[in-house]
Design a protein that fits this description.
alpha/beta, CobQ/CobB/MinD/ParA_Nub-bd_dom, P-loop_NTPase, seven-stranded parallel beta sheet, DNA_Partitioning_ATPase, Rossmann fold, about 210 residues, single chain
């Protein structure tokens, strides 16, 4: 099974939005998908519960207390696992997930506080043996961006100097708040209104699809 870990040391960075959208996309493509909710707030779990009646339902798996037990509880038929890591966690708190992940996605918002917190998190992540050996890919997602602002452009310029690639730039939109509350994602809709938003995700999905 392919496993994607969505992690950030800064609360409110957009982990749940990214984790639920990646899970929804995989399920809509016909993959048997599990969403491990390792965050005590359990927002991803509630999203999956609201989605339960859909054909593209996602299996919620509690993972906030015992990570090893959560991993072992995954059905053998699972094809895609998305892990919503706990807010504030550093690499040393993510041992089980870092051992099993195929990729780590790190959301970053355009603020000094978010950038500083992310630098600290990435420094701890860089010390993990799998990251050091190049076995575990790490990608940054510039989240809640407003491309027309100096702050967003400055953030992208700064991220371009970091050792990990920016694999997507997601625009700021209240639609994400609404969708999470409904148990839905942008990928559940085909209207012209959401196509531009869906296009924001294409680079990230392509990066995750690489072997």
């Amino acid at each position: 099974m392919k496993t994607v870990l969505v992690a950030s040391s800064k609360g409110g960075a957009g982990k749940t939005t990214i984790a639920t959208h990646l899970a929804a996309h995989a399920a809509l493509e016909g993959r048997r998908t599990a969403l491990v909710d390792a965050d005590p707030q359990q927002s991803s779990t509630r999203w999956a519960e609201r989605r339960a009646a859909l054909e593209s339902a996602v299996l919620p798996v509690p993972g906030a207390r015992r990570a090893k037990a959560a991993w072992k509880s995954l059905p053998e038929t699972t094809q895609r696992v998305v892990v919503d890591a706990p807010a504030g966690a550093m690499a040393e708190d993510l041992g089980v997930w870092l051992e099993h992940a195929d990729a780590v996605v790190v959301p970053v918002q355009p603020s000094a506080l978010d950038l500083d917190a992310t630098v600290h998190f990435l420094n701890t992540l860089a010390q993990h043996p799998r990251v050091r050996r190049g076995e575990l890919r790490v990608g940054l997602v510039a989240n809640r961006m407003k491309p027309w602002t100096n702050a967003s452009q400055a953030t992208l310029d700064l991220l371009g100097q970091w050792p990990y690639p920016v694999v997507a730039t997601l625009r700021d939109s209240q639609a994400y708040v609404l969708l999470v509350g409904l148990g839905r994602s942008l990928f559940d809709y085909r209207s012209a209104q959401v196509r531009d938003h869906q296009a924001d995700w294409a680079p990230l999905l392509k990066w995750l699809g690489r072997p």
